[in-house]
Amino acid sequence: MTTTPTDRGVGPLLRAWREQRRVSQLELALRADSSARHISFIETGRSRPSEDMVLRLAEHLEVPVRERNALLLAAGYAPRYSQTPLDDPAMDAVRAGMERLIQGYEPYPAIVVDAMYNVQAANRGILMLLEDIPEQLLAPPLNAMRLTLHPEGLAPRIRNLREWRGHLLAQMERQIALHRSEPLRQLYEEVAAYPVPEEDPSEEPAEPVPYFALPMLIEHEGRTLSFISSISTFNTPMDVTVAELAIETLLPADPATVKYLQSLMP
């Protein structure tokens, strides 16, 4: 669940993050150049940490940027990180940079999503995969997880759906553990409940192909395309919005996929 400031101060919040990360007071003290005694005093409220100490502990506990603001507020300090809407003029450079990046990746698919997997930008490679998807699934806010796993979305076209679905759900579980976000958990419960087609026992298993990472095998125009996913984020973000953006690129996993995509988009 998302962290909120409490009347008890920052101590219980820091202890909760430390326990979730499975770090002892001594280990955290060593990382933060402090002492286990001081960490204990902070967690029990006997000592009020400095603003720098709150940020240092949050850094070593890998607390998401959004939640660092909550820790600062609970400790009596002003939030350090802004949350600028992506369509704000101040974000023009970030937005333009991401657009150039994903457009430059064409003809291969690339997409930008936020912490809730809502699509913020997509290139023509992605739009190609979304051809003939029902309009109700394409209505804003466009959500990448719903589009992929919904039985009227891409799911029927993904030949290794069970494997790919398992990968996506595990990815969401890791994000929930990291961010403790209730809206993200609700999205997870929704998409995890989508029906999965029964396997056809009469269908012969495909010949194994030596991939170096789990591919997404998806049908398009009578062909099976193969992609490996790569996700990039911003280093040392100083804004909540930027911290929660992720750029996913789908790298062709075989020569046939490369040849086909290049034939579509010179």
From TrEMBL:
PANTHER family: BLL4672 PROTEIN-RELATED, BLL5781 PROTEIN. Residues 14-68 form the HTH cro/C1-type domain. SUPFAM superfamilies: lambda repressor-like DNA-binding domains. Signal peptide: none annotated. InterPro entries: Cro/C1-type_HTH, Lambda_DNA-bd_dom_sf, MLTR_LBD. PROSITE patterns: HTH_CROC1. Gene3D superfamilies: 3.30.450.180, lambda repressor-like DNA-binding domains. One of its GO terms (molecular function) is DNA binding. It holds the Pfam family MLTR_LBD. This is HTH cro/C1-type domain-containing protein.
